[in-house]
Amino acid sequence: MKINKYWDKQQFWWWLSLTMAAVYGLLALGMAFDGEYVVQDDARQHVFWMQRFLDPGFFPGDLIADYFQSVAPQGYVKLYHLGATLSIPPLLLNKLLPLPLGILTTILTFRLSMRLFPVPMAAFMGSLILNQSLWMKDDLASATPRAFVYPLFLAFLLFLLEGSLLPCLLAIVLTGLFYPQSVLVEAGILIWRLLQSKNGFLAPIFPLNPAKFLKRKGMFELAGLVTAVAVMLPYVWQTSDFGPTISLAAAKELPEFWSGGRSEFFTDRLDEFWLSSRRSGCLPNRMAIACWFGLLLPLVQRYSQTFPLTKKISHDIIILPQITITAFTLFFAAHALLFTLHLPSRYTTHTLQIVLALAAGICIAIITDKLRYQSRQGLIIAGIIVTALLLYPLTVSHFPRPYYKTGKAVELYQFFQKQPQDILIASIAEEGHFLPTFAQRSILVGREYAIPYHLGYYQKFRQRTAAVIQAQYSPNSAPMRELIAKYGIDFWLLDRAAFTPGYFEENEWLDEYTTKKFPQDELVMTVKNSLETLQRGETPALSRLAEVCTVWENDKFVVLGGECLMK
Question: Of 12, 112, 306, 369, which sits with the fewest C-beta atoms within 10 Å of its C-beta?
Answer without folding.
Answer: 306
